[in-house]
Automatic annotation (TrEMBL):
InterPro entries: GGGP/HepGP_synthase_sf, GGGP_HepGP_synthase, IGPS_HisA/HisF
Name the record gives this protein: Geranylgeranylglyceryl phosphate synthase
SUPFAM superfamilies hit by this protein: FMN-linked oxidoreductases
Keyword Lipid metabolism: yes
Pfam families, sorted: PcrB
Highest taxon, organism lineage: Bacteria
EC number: 2.5.1.41
This protein's UniProt keywords: Lipid biosynthesis, Lipid metabolism, Magnesium, Metal-binding, Phospholipid biosynthesis, Phospholipid metabolism, Transferase
Function summary: Prenyltransferase that catalyzes the transfer of the geranylgeranyl moiety of geranylgeranyl diphosphate (GGPP) to the C3 hydroxyl of sn-glycerol-1-phosphate (G1P).
Amino acid sequence: YQNILKSVLEKKKLLAVLIDPDKFPVERTDSFLLKVNASLATHIFVGGSTVDDFVTDILVSEIKKHSNLPVVLFPGDVTQITNKADALLFLSLISGRNPEYLIGKHVQAVSKLKGSNLEVVPTGYLLIEGGKVTAVERVTGEKPLSRTNVQDIVDTACAGHLLGMKLIYLEAGSGAKAPLTQRIISEVKKAVQLPIIVGGGIRSKAQLDAVYEAGADLAVIGTAFEQDELFFEDLKAPSSAEQLLKEDNND
Ligand code: 1GP
């Protein structure tokens, strides 16, 4: 969390590649992680809405063999908690009213977290209309917030802040038709003095830049990489020679 805060202060944008253990064949880890490591990615998020027991544990061990990026759990359920990751987004679905996803799963998680080294980061999670019914909606039974009622989104994020959440995650849902609008992101950013995570439906460099420009501190991309690894080419980290040239030009 301190690293995220530092990046926000330095105005450095962060990018998480989301790997869903339910969809990702573990044999692909090696080649996939080569591309992740050469890209602008700063974090690896691991999680999904429906994942079989122990699958996350095996996948995180494998990821750790092939990348030094921090691995952050983004769990759909308690079964996805593994001590092998670095941190856990302790997500509370504050856009919904289902007690299970506001506090119930968290109580269940406590026995799993005892003695664990995971850094637990309380995160206010807001599901917002993404143009289709998403897995989060199916699993939690919760309707997303309306895209057009921006004040409701802002008030929900502010309430999360007042409750002590350390991150706000604005979620359009995996595979959303379009990313969240710049207006939603910028209004939340203005109102809440916390790092803002934005995910769902980001499929191009232009969309990623728009999300950052609006105020997202950390963007999450899953589906676009799952469907086409060539997308990593658009998000390649500059080589050290290119980086030096850029810095010289800025001087
Ligand atoms: C989903 O925000 C993430 O929880 C990523 O969404 O799969 O659409 O990139 P995509």
